[in-house]
Specification:
Structural class: alpha+beta
Strand order of the largest sheet: 7-8-9-10-12-11
Order of helices and strands: HHHHHEEEEHHHHHHEEEHHEEEHHEEHHH
Number of domains: 2
Number of helices: 18
Largest sheet: 6 strands, antiparallel
InterPro entries: DUF2252
Number of strands: 12
Protein name: DUF2252 domain-containing protein
Organism: Chlorobium phaeobacteroides (strain DSM 266 / SMG 266 / 2430)
Radius of gyration: 22 Å
Helix content: 40-55%
Shape: globular
Distance between the termini: 47 Å
Pfam family, one: DUF2252
């Protein structure tokens, strides 16, 4: 299989086959097992010409702010799981060489367990869903499932679990994905489309009373606090009559050159202008109730470190604060292997993916063009977000969380793919989850080898890693 060139091969959105009879579509999926048996989904063997992972990471840093790149490597250096979170480009290259049924969906692209969580919907209910779409693109559906399941194996090892316990978590992620997809195949199209995962019910269904209490406490904290008001107290200060974002270098700071031809403040203001113009009229009216008072750089995540990311503070005439986060949208790591995005800008690609795959997206979600050809997407900084506490999970908690993530991924994939065809391919036995679990173990081993390569590169001075201090 030849590597797709994103400059010449453009993806198209998945064709919708739902108008055909169910039996015909299920048989179509089952027939795909002949060209790609489910057992082959469990194989991982690096190709002879496999690109060095450090070369891929260095290439992925092209266009990033050079002064911030060492922070990215420093975060990835923490442990193999941190490396996994930051190496989506490496795994995308590897997944391209793995067997595929040929079915494509709108895929998350960076589908690991830390990119799921709880947040408030527009209806102000807490939902559980995927929450990161920087790498979203049209690609084989298996790539998301494999990256998700392998992340449970990697995280389980990081928590000190046994190999069996880690494999069980990966297995249950795939099992949940398959069984939920079967349920969607037997559900009306509109009912399946409208479904959301209620975070409170998900927490209450847990079997660990200690984790249930912790989950309920975190939900109360997220919902009882006026989020933007609490963010204002943490992130802003009054400078005279004008509120300003507090400096907290090196992760939050003002008016830095970002080592480019364009001052960050100029970039940020142009992003806000472009974002406003691209909002739907009804959302633009809401935004216009606030006025922009300040912008600042904000370094975030692992994979996003070094890209143009920041926060903007808006204030209404009533004194209500609004924090918006804008993040640079770059080429998806999937595009060199699955074809380039069908959208004109990467901001549009991210916004489309998020609106399609999430049950309910942020009311302020939008996209923008910046200066020097950069693309951006914009969303609220925080909105009652509840992140997973993977570090404190026991093996049983990890399995329950794997089930939730598998469910959320199936719910997201069936919005662009055909649940009936996908179910036809996966079948009713446990062959699919057995294969994905086997892949997860093998790829977790590969991830550890790649992590050792990062350590060697830092020791040799090939790359610089900056360890952040509290």
């Amino acid at each position: 299989m030849k590597k797709a060139k994103s400059s010449s091969v453009r993806s198209t959105l998945p064709e919708q086959s739902h108008g055909r009879p169910l039996s015909e579509r299920f048989a179509e999926g089952a027939a795909l097992r002949k060209q790609c048996p489910r057992s082959r989904q469990g194989t991982w063997q690096p190709v002879k010409e496999r690109v060095n992972p450090i070369d891929l990471l260095i290439e992925n840093n092209t266009g990033r702010v050079e002064s911030l790149v060492p922070i990215r490597f420093g975060r990835m250096l923490a442990n193999p799981f941190a490396f996994y979170r930051g190496s989506a480009a490496v795994m995308a290259s590897d997944l391209f060489s793995t067997p595929s049924s040929g079915l494509r969906v709108v895929a998350c692209g960076d589908c690991h367990l830390m990119n799921f969580g709880g947040f408030a919907s527009m209806e102000r209910r807490l939902v559980f869903d995927i929450n990161d779409f920087d790498e979203v693109s049209v690609a084989p559906w298996e790539w998301d499932v494999k990256r998700l399941a392998a992340s449970f194996m990697v995280a389980s090892r990081q928590n000190g679990f046994s190999e069996k316990e880690g494999r069980d978590a990966a297995w249950w992620a795939a099992r949940s994905y398959r069984t939920r997809m079967f349920r969607y195949a037997d559900t009306s199209i509109l009912d399946a489309f409208y479904e959301f995962i209620d975070l409170k019910k998900l927490v209450d269904a847990g079997t660990d009373e200690e984790m249930r209490r912790l989950g309920r406490k975190r939900i109360r904290k997220a919902t009882e606090t006026a989020t933007h008001q609490s963010d204002f107290l943490k992130l802003a200060t009054l400078a005279g009559k004008t509120p300003r974002i507090k400096d907290d270098p090196p992760l939050v700071y003002h008016d830095q050159d970002m080592q480019s031809d364009d001052a960050f403040s100029e970039v940020a203001h142009k992003v806000v202008q472009s974002y406003r113009s691209n909002l739907p009229p009804e959302r633009r009216l809401l935004l216009d109730r606030f006025r922009l008072t300040d912008v600042a750089v904000k370094v975030v995540g692992v994979g996003s470190v070094g890209t143009y990311c920041g926060i903007a503070l808006f204030i209404s005439g009533n004194g209500d604060p609004l924090f918006l986060q804008f993040k640079e949208a770059r080429n998806s790591v999937l595009e060199p292997y699955a074809g380039s995005s069908p959208f004109k800008t990467h901001g549009e690609r991210v916004v489309f993916g998020q609106r399609l795959m999430q049950a309910s997206s942020d009311v302020f979600l939008g996209w923008a063009k910046g200066v020097s050809g950069r693309h951006f997407y914009v969303r609220q900084l925080r909105d009652a977000k509840v992140k997973p506490l993977v570090e404190v999970m026991k093996p049983l908690n990890m399995v329950n969380y794997a089930k939730a993530c598998g469910w959320a991924l199936a719910r997201a994939h069936k919005r662009s793919g055909d649940a009936v065809v996908l179910s036809g391919y996966m079948g009713k036995s446990d062959a699919f989850e057995n294969a994905i679990a086997a892949f997860s173990v093998a790829y977790a081993d590969q991830n550890e080898r790649d992590y050792e390569e990062l350590i060697k590169a830092v020791r040799s001075g090939r790359i610089e890693a900056r360890i952040e201090t509290a």
